[in-house]
C-alpha cells in the first residue's frame, strides 16, 4: 500500500507543480502559493469538507495593503508567519505547517487531523512534516484565524499513519473515549519477521485494520489471511474497518461499539489469563507462562 500511496502523492505533486508554474508565469509578482494550493504541491489532497474554492489557485499576502488580485486566483491576507520554500520558477510555496494552519478555519477538526496525518506519513518518502513542526508553528503564531481549531486538533494527531482512512479511524476512537492507541504497532512473529498493525492497543492485544480497495487483490487477501492468523496465534484480536464503516454517522457508531466490545472482551481475557498465571498467547498448542 505504501508504494500505491507514494505514486498517488507523487502524481498529485507533479500535476500541481506544473499548474503553479503556469499560474505564476501570468503574474507580475512572485506569488506565495498557500492553503490548499500548497497542500497539493506537497502531494496532499484538500479535505472533502474544505470550504475553500477548489477551481482556483490560492496565494497569500502579509497585509491588506500589499494584497493583489488576479483572475482565477484567490488572494488571502495571512497574519501568521510566512514559512515558505526557496524561490523556484518564479514562485514560492507555503511550507506544510503554514498550509495546514491556513486551512484550519475552512474545515472540521477531524479533517484537519486527517490532513496532518497525511503530512506526517510513516513512509519517509511521503512525509513532509513532523508533529513537532506543526505544533511549533501553531505555538509561535497566536493571531491567525483558525488557531483555536488547530489547538483543539493537536491532541488528535498521530504520526506514522499510512493513509488518510487510518487517520480517520484513529481520530474516531479518540473522539469516542477509547483511549489513545498506537499507530503502526510492530509485532514480532518469528526470527527476523514482524507485522505492523494499523492501529493497536498493545496492552490488551487488540488491533484495528483499515481494509481499502488495495486489500481486494487476490495475492493481498492471501497475505492478509496469513498475517491475521499469525497475529491471532499470539493472542491478538483484529477489528476490520472498511469505507462503509466510515460513510455515515450511524455506521461510525456501530464500528465504535464493535471496537468497544472487543476491547472489553480482550481486557477480560487478559485479566483471566493473569489470574491463572498463564499467557493468552497460544502458540503451537501450548500456553506460555506469563513473564
UniProtKB/TrEMBL annotation:
It comes from the Bacteria. This is DUF559 domain-containing protein. It comes from Bifidobacterium phasiani.
Amino acid at each position: 500500500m505504501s508504494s500505491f500511496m507514494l505514486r498517488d502523492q507523487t502524481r498529485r505533486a507533479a500535476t500541481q507543480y506544473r499548474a503553479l508554474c503556469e499560474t505564476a508565469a501570468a503574474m507580475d509578482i512572485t506569488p506565495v502559493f498557500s492553503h490548499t494550493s500548497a497542500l497539493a504541491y506537497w502531494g496532499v489532497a484538500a479535505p472533502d469538507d474544505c470550504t475553500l474554492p477548489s477551481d482556483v489557485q490560492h496565494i497569500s499576502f502579509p497585509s491588506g495593503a500589499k494584497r493583489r488580485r488576479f483572475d482565477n486566483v484567490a488572494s488571502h491576507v495571512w497574519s501568521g508567519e510566512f514559512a515558505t520554500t526557496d524561490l523556484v520558477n518564479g514562485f514560492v510555496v507555503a511550507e506544510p505547517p503554514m498550509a495546514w494552519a491556513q486551512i484550519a478555519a475552512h474545515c472540521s477538526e477531524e479533517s484537519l487531523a486527517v490532513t496532518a496525518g497525511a503530512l506526517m506519513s510513516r513512509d519517509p518518502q511521503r512525509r513532509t512534516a513532523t508533529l513537532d513542526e506543526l505544533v511549533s508553528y501553531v505555538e509561535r503564531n497566536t493571531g491567525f484565524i483558525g488557531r483555536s481549531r488547530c489547538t483543539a486538533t493537536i491532541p488528535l494527531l498521530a504520526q506514522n499513519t499510512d493513509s488518510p482512512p487510518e487517520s480517520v479511524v484513529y481520530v474516531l476512537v479518540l473522539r469516542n473515549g477509547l483511549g489513545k492507541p498506537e499507530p503502526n504497532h510492530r509485532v514480532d512473529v518469528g526470527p527476523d519477521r514482524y507485522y505492523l498493525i494499523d492501529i493497536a492497543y498493545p496492552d490488551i492485544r487488540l488491533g484495528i485494520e483499515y481494509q481499502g480497495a488495495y486489500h481486494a487483490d487476490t495475492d493481498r487477501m492471501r497475505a492478509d489471511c496469513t498475517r491475521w492468523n499469525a497475529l491471532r496465534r499470539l493472542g491478538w484480536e483484529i477489528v476490520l474497518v472498511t469505507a462503509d464503516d466510515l460513510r455515515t454517522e450511524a455506521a461510525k457508531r456501530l464500528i465504535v461499539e464493535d471496537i468497544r466490545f472487543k476491547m472489553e472482551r480482550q481486557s477480560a481475557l487478559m485479566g483471566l489469563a493473569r489470574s491463572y498465571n498463564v499467557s493468552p498467547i497460544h502458540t503451537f498448542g501450548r500456553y506460555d507462562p506469563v513473564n
